[in-house]
Amino acid sequence: MIYSFRASRPIGGNQQRRQRAMATQSAAIFVVFIFLYQANPVFGCTVTPPAASTLAGNSVSVTCMSIAGVEYVNQWRRQNANIYIAPNRITNGSVAEGYSVDDSNPKIVTLTVKNVSIQYIGNYECFCINLESGQPKDSAYISVIETEPRFIGTDSLSSDDPANLTCSLEFAGSANLLMQITNSAGDVLKKLNQKITTNVSQQFDLPYTTSSAIEKMYFCHISLSDDGNDQKTTIFSRNLTRTVQFSVRNVSIAPESPERCQSGGFCQKDSVILCKAEGSPEPTYSFTIYYNGTTERSPTAKYTVKYVGQQVIQCTASNVISGVVYSNSISFTTNVTEEHVGPSNDSGGSNVPLIVGLVVGLGGGLLILIIILILIYFKRQKRRTACCNLEQSSEAKPEDAIGTKDSTKGNKGNNTNINGQTNLAAISGDERVLVDNALYSGAKGGVTYSTAIDPSDGGYAAINELGTNRKG
């Protein structure tokens, strides 16, 4: 169909008429574009999901939806055989055995395979009716999982034996298969990624042998996708878990607070001892204490030390597999004391007592130092005061205390008494004084004299000048 439009030329040279004419032309072109678009619409069918898979015996559904320009969904076919024909003016329509159809909305028709098995696998095509351009179509592929996926392997082991595990899938159809075996940490231990196209049922296995039975939980992840890319549409997935049983191993015994208790050393009373081990099923624990010729047992994984003195503390871990008891033991010797230690910083203890003790200790030491300094100060002050008093009391002239002197001959003067002492004599010339066991002090000519008896000098003591100028 061809559309045309002719716009009239504006009359005269009026600018306003020309603008109106241009607007009329633009509107006409737009209308022509709309007519042409409607005459050639986009049309087709869309099937969702593009692939589907389920366990044998289950049902699976796919939906066909017509898009713009399509009158209705006309047919569903499998391997060129009609399984659904839409009702119309000529026929009431039909549905093949084993299928059901919901066509309450003729533009959205859902096809359901009621009991999936190998005979129903394959490509399913949906045809839509367009009166102008025939029958657009789209398709979906239906696969089947014959049996529930399995994750099998060794049930029970001794502590060092490896475990043999197998992840298994039985499948028919077309899909990309991804299988992985992982541990509890999510590490991929083994992987299979394979494109499958088969019309018969096949079993796909992923075996794995552990290096040792160090894990008790293993996981098998199975995924089927429609286009060979596991990041695209997933049509089936399963996550399986396998528990491996193994006997007790790697038993350990240790104090909860190592700073309070040491194997082969000292352990403080009320210390807590912990026992740990690996095993599947989970081990049970017991403590045996050998002390002073006696034996005590405690069925627990945690023991609090209560006896003082030399003793042996033993931990035993056990589990049961298939009716058989497996056990393993470990012990240490220690010497328990009465000392108690408060909570350490690691266990959330407070530092307040330690801080208070430091403050009190430092404060007491400082106070004692201040008292000592004060005592030294007052003692020195007392000595200075005594010295000044002594100088003031010695204002008498030396000759007054000495008595008669003969400066020419240097003979001894008369015996006199100074401060209650006897045998005092003055010798002119060298100013020597004899005083028995006494200190002579006096003043002469503004100079203060002070001396003590020197027995090695025959009982004579030299008078020394005190001041800036000293005479020996």
Word description of this protein:
- It is a single chain.
- This protein is elongated.
- Mean pLDDT is 74; it is low at 1-13, 27-42, 341-350 and 394-472.
- The termini are far apart.
- 15% of the residues lie in helices and 47% in strands.
- The strands form 6 sheets. Strands 2, 4, 5, 6, 9, 10, 11, 13, 14, 15 and 16 form an 11-stranded mixed beta sheet that branches.
- With 472 residues, the chain is of the alpha+beta class.
Keywords:
472 residues, alpha+beta, 11-stranded mixed sheet, 3 helices, 31 strands, 47% strand, disordered C terminus
Quick summary:
The chain is α+β, with helices and mostly antiparallel strands and 472 residues long.
Count of alpha/pi helices = 3
Oligomer kind? single chain
Main beta sheet: 11 strands, mixed
* Average of pLDDT: 74
Which structural category fits the helices and strands? alpha+beta
C-alpha end-to-end distance: 150 Å
**Low-confidence runs (pLDDT<50, min 5 residues)?**
1-13, 27-42, 341-350, 394-472
**Beta-strand percentage range:** over 45%
Helix content: 10-25%
Overall shape? elongated
Count of strand segments: 31
Radius of gyration, whole Å = 59 Å
Itemize the secondary structure elements and their pairings.
Elements: H1 15-39, E1 45-48, E2 51-55, E3 60-66, E4 72-78, E5 81-85, E6 94-95, E7 99-105, E8 108-113, E9 122-129, E10 137-145, E11 150-153, E12 156-157, E13 164-183, E14 188-209, E15 217-225, E16 234-243, E17 245-255, E18 266-268, E19 272-280, E20 284-291, E21 294-298, E22 302-304, E23 309-321, E24 324-337, H2 352-392, H3 398-402, E25 416-418, E26 421-427, E27 432-434, E28 439-444, E29 447-452, E30 460-462, E31 464-466
Parallel strand pairs: 2-10, 12-17, 18-24
Antiparallel strand pairs: 1-3, 3-8, 4-5, 4-9, 5-6, 7-8, 9-10, 10-13, 11-13, 13-14, 13-15, 15-16, 17-19, 19-22, 20-21, 20-23, 23-24, 25-26, 26-27, 27-30, 28-29, 29-31
